[in-house]
Amino acid sequence: MKCDWVKENIVFYVYDEMADDAKFEFMHHVQHCAGCKQELEAAQAFRSDLGALPEPEVTPNFLASSRMHLQEALEHTEQSRSVLGAFIFDFAGWMHQIKLAPALTAALLMIGFAGGSITTWKLVPQKAIISEPGGPSGPDANVAGIQSVVTDTNSNKVTITYDTLRPHTYVSTPDDPRVQELLLLGTRNRTNSDVRIGSVDMLKDHAQDNEVRDALVSRLRFDDNVSVRLSALGALKGYVRDDVHVRDAVMEALLHDGNPGVRREAIALLDSVKADTSVREALRNLALRDPDQYIRTQAQKYLENTPHLD
Amino acid sequence: MPAETAVLKAPVGVSGARGHSQSTGDMVSQTIGRVNDSELIRAAQRGDRAAFEVLVRQYDQAVLRLALHLTNSEPDARDIYQEAFLKAYRHIGNFRFECSFYTWIYRIVTNLCLDHLRKRQTRKEDPPVVMVSSGQEVVLLDRVSDDRAGANPERDLMRRELGAKIALALTKLTPRERMVFELKHYQGLRLRTIGEMLNTTEETAKNTLFRATQKLRSALSPMR
Hints:
The structure holds two protein chains of two kinds. By secondary structure, chain A is α+β, with helices and mostly antiparallel strands. Chain A is 59% helix and 8% strand. A four-stranded mixed β-sheet of chain A has the order 1-4-3-2. In chain A, a hairpin with a 3-residue loop joins strand 3 and strand 4. In chain A, helix 11 packs parallel to helix 13. The radius of gyration of chain A is 28 Å and the shape is extended. Chain B is an all-alpha fold. Chain B is built from ten helices and two strands; from the N terminus they run ααααααββαααα. Chain B has a two-stranded antiparallel sheet with strand order 1-2. In chain B, helix 4 runs antiparallel to helix 5 and helix 5 packs across helix 6. The longest helix of chain B has 23 residues. The relative contact order of chain B is 0.09. The chains are: A alpha+beta, B mainly alpha.
């Protein structure tokens, strides 16, 4: 058993990817086992043999001409700026400027204090602005966060409420690019998971767009709300076969998600790509070791259905 | 160009022949310049092209070397290099400082290289040659020479044969295995970083490296 473990980990020892305690255990065994010692020497010799392949060189001329071509291409390239991006307040950049300008910081603090003293006697709740595409009151201030996403299936309209300097409502069809930009913001709402769920649900029909797909993958990987992760997983269903990033994210959910429901959904999506070597490797591990009986059985079933690939 | 950018624009040396250890060393030296990356990135995000070019100079040798090593073709490597930095320039506004610029640009490059390798695999191309900019093909193994004192033709020949076997064995790996192996063995990156670059986990990168080395060892075992 120990020899098996050593053989499985020789490559990580040779490439210095082994934890210190495991390394100690590894070397202790190798010193007392002739077979494993021989195996280690062979692995080290293999690594050294690979030096026989000459590396193509980046010559000074090649580097210089590549730089020249790039500079020419850059002259004709514009940076892409989303319409929404122009309205988003760059807090980090602002803070950076403030750090470099203490005098400005002091001035802003004084203005803020004075302004606050004058205006606190007259706090009037602001009425939400309702705007429509092409309407006269378009978004003209910084978007601070998405408040709510409400869908009316009868009228095929989506209503998104978001904060600017005062609450703002935008009413349009789901296909409106402005709606999609706001929905993308909605997926990142940190305080309200309903907004994230609503946004992800609305975006699932637009997952052919790379930006939308990235947002869904990000929700699947990082969202702490199970419903959001499940919604994102459902929205990505059609892209597991063709988009390797989606496949990796689904694999990651299957291997590491803390919720059994998410993992069971994830394994169901991998049925169509079980020929992928990484997927099969993961399925083999799951079939042997997963604590969830359902996952073990499913993994075993997938492997048995395509035994010719082994 | 803003004054801060002008000050940061230190020349990056252009060097010629290097070995494996030197290439890793180069990458390390390129990473030293990352201290000022965030200022440069913010300037580039505000549309300062000169700042972006300074960023390019910090990473472009490593990027070009990676692309050249994976494609074995100078024109293809140049295309990947150019596409990667143009993509980075167009989308630098989306860079949110959630990872280092180095990881971000490498993620773009590795994706482009993976696409290239997949296309090549479909075309079943596996030339052990390198195509130089003039369009001429040079047999990679002809570049192998043993200049050490006491070198003999027989040893040189064996080394060439081994090199040919390795080149062939590398083409048998899947694009993802090839990429992980390249980033680990030749670029010397940690598996955790490789996982980040390939948008996957360290564990998956580990499994992929294991499979790649198993395949290579089994392909090369008759040589020993």
